[in-house]
Design goal:
The protein is an alpha/beta fold. The protein contains 16 helices and 14 strands.
Length: 432
């Protein structure tokens, strides 16, 4: 793993570049073809792609109640208890985010109101691939139901035998998912974008995925279906001082690396001792972990960056805009006040990223690849629209009518002016 010592600020932008997929153009083209194929051939295309990509010969795309019953019976009581703990904490944090109505009399007789209204049909994507991410089911379905979505649809890739991991099914039932479909990858995003005989078209798509899923979501957004955010390979940036326990930092690096070979871990430190120790500590841990080869690929484009002081570390972090930011530092609370760009922040030595990934209550569906400069992670508000209402009385016309007329006339929109002028004249005539 590369150790970069005291780079100049002019070099920071280059150091902030994520691992790039060289075949980006090919991914865009391949996803475009999948989107068009599913749009044209629906369920048949979904079955063809599952057979091609996962080897699963699928008859019925939607999971049945009998399958959900079987899954629930097969999940251990220990895992059910852990899922319940996580679900309770996620629910508590996301219920606290529910917005209320706002009503303001902006001028005499002019009443403006904003009302939160849930998205009608939410589409959730839960990756398969390297891990059965049942935790993502909780992170997406729980706030969708708290927000009041009328229908929650979930797509996730099946195994070769066409089955879905029982923990995913159990979590989906617990979190209130209405329909579960055994289809994954770009084809699942396409199904939720266009609809098929089995899979309904949704209003907004949520969830992480590989670069094909990310590209499909971005293409879905160009076809009239909203998305939560662009979310590609996962990443963590750790800010640590010389007091940080090297094993904690190493474990945080490796927990990120096991997400996938494209994941990236960055350490920023002003401690040459920690920078020098970390590679050896990581190597010592690697041999005891089952995904060593994949983690090695991730670590090959991870970095240790030695900087002069806390201010430089925070400036670099805000430029990088990490999905996960761990501040393992004696001044963690002070540095937290300097955070401008991050998906989710973990403060102090006792706050590993895995706490937020599973059970602290915050959401783990977060912006990656620098999108934390402009996007928030998934939250209850992600499933809500805010609709504005206004009501004017005759006094309201008197308050703002002249301003509306003048502005409309100066924008040369005379029908706009007329709509107000007619009301002004009507009020005048009624008073005579």
């Amino acid at each position: 793993m590369e150790i970069i010592r005291y780079p100049s600020p002019a070099e920071w932008q280059t150091l902030s570049v994520r691992a790039l997929a060289e075949e980006a153009a090919e991914v865009t083209e391949a996803v475009g073809k999948i989107m068009e194929d599913v749009a044209s051939h629906g369920d048949d295309a979904l079955r063809d792609y599952e057979l091609r990509f996962t080897g699963a010969a699928i008859d019925r795309l939607e999971v049945t109640e009998a399958e959900l019953d079987e899954a629930e019976a097969s999940v251990s009581s220990e895992l059910k208890e852990a899922i319940a703990t996580a679900a309770d904490n996620i629910s508590a944090f996301h219920k606290a985010q529910l917005p209320g109505r706002i009503t303001v009399e902006t001028a005499p007789g002019v009443y403006c109101e904003q009302r939160p209204v849930a998205i009608s049909r939410a589409g959730l994507y839960v990756p398969g691939g390297n891990s059965p991410l049942f935790s993502t089911v909780l992170m997406l379905a729980i706030p969708a139901n708290i927000a009041g979505c009328r229908e929650v649809v979930l797509c996730t890739p099946p195994g070769k035998d066409g089955s879905i991991h029982p923990a995913i099914l159990y979590a989906a039932r617990l979190a209130g998912v209405d329909h579960i479909f055994r289809t994954g990858g770009a084809q699942a995003i396409a199904a939720m974008t266009f609809g098929s005989a089995s899979v309904p078209r949704v209003d907004k798509i949520f969830g992480p995925g590989n670069r094909y899923v990310t590209e499909a979501k971005q293409q879905a957004a160009r076809r009239g279906v909203a998305i939560d955010m662009p979310a590609g390979p996962s990443e963590v940036l750790v800010i640590a001082d010389g007091n940080a326990e090297p094993r904690f930092v190493a474990a945080d690096f490796l927990s990120q690396a096991e997400h996938g070979p494209d994941s990236q871990s960055i350490l920023l430190t002003s401690s040459p001792e920690l920078a020098g120790k970390l590679p050896g500590v990581i190597n010592g841990m690697l041999d005891s972990l089952p995904r060593r080869d994949m983690m090695m690929r991730s670590l090959s484009h991870s970095r240790i960056i030695l900087l002069h002081d806390d201010e430089e570390m925070m400036a670099f972090s805000n430029l990088y805009a990490p999905e996960h930011l761990i501040i393992n530092h004696t001044r963690a609370d002070e540095l937290a006040d300097m955070v401008v760009n991050a998906g989710s922040v973990f403060l102090g030595a006792w706050s590993p990223e895995s706490a937020g990934d599973y059970a602290s209550g915050t959401n783990h569906t977060l912006p990656t690849s620098g999108y934390a400069r402009a996007y928030s992670g998934v939250n209850t508000d992600s499933f809500i629209k805010r609709i504005t209402f206004q009501r004017l009385t005759p006094d309201g016309i008197k308050s703002i009518g002249k301003a509306v007329e003048t502005m409309a006339e100066n924008e040369e929109l005379m029908a706009h002016k007329l709509a107000m002028t007619l009301r002004i004249n009507k009020i005048k005539s009624d008073r005579q």
